[in-house]
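Usage

Read records sequentially. Each one opens with the input sequence:
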Amino acid sequence: MQNEHQGRLTRDGIRIHERADFAGMAKAGALASRILDDIAEHVFVGQTTGEIDRLIENMVDAAGATSATIGYKGYKHASCISVNHVVCHGIPGDKRLKEGDILNIDVTVIVDGWFGDTSRMYVAGKLSRKAERLVQVTHDSLMRGIEAVRPGNTFGDIGHAIQSYVEAERMSVVRDFCGHGLGRVFHSPPNVLHYGRPGMGPTLEEGMFFTIEPMVNLGRPETKVLGDDWTAVTRDKSLSAQFEHSIGVTADGFEIFTLSEAGRFHPTWATSA
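and closes with the structure output:
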């Protein structure tokens, strides 16, 4: 396996990829993003999360790609679908979506050995005002984190950009889960924390690939994992939202591998003019 990886490791164990590797990540990211574009029309009141997942699995297969999550540590689905107070790793099933439910759909595909990992928020029916604000703040916090990505900055700069914005909006950042390195593997160093202090943590270098994926709660940040060993929920049952992009550090900033070609990363639902 080691021979498949070109480039060096930093002293923190973070792989530095070569310029040619960006194309592979962009291709994988584009497919994951396109699947999330195409699934939007299938999110509606009365739909089951299991049916959404079945459709996603079909889309992965139709593209000739591989789901990274099916078989990962025993997981059986092509997506994680986290509804309302589920923070992340919600398991698709027979649950029917109700009016006003918000849900994160998280998809990771493997294309030519490269991993494309992204998630975004959807709504069944009409969005409540408080849910709309939570989703908007979560999206904007991700983009502020991404804007801190450039060589010479640190992972603490990314976390601080997210945390300071979210907390100023009187919401909380989940501490129990984080972003991660990826490339030809699903998860690798570093842990990308969505909170932190400026100047702390490893220094960003050109060629690093990782996800930024803040989870933001309307209430307190604490979570708990249910008995299925996957589903994480807010302890206080408050609403939670998440957005995720896969990122590469370039010479002068960043490349987002999982941009929506259709411009539907946010919002995923139709907005009235």
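Summary fields computed downstream for this record:
- The chain has one domain: 9-256.
- DSSP finds four helices and 15 strands in the chain.
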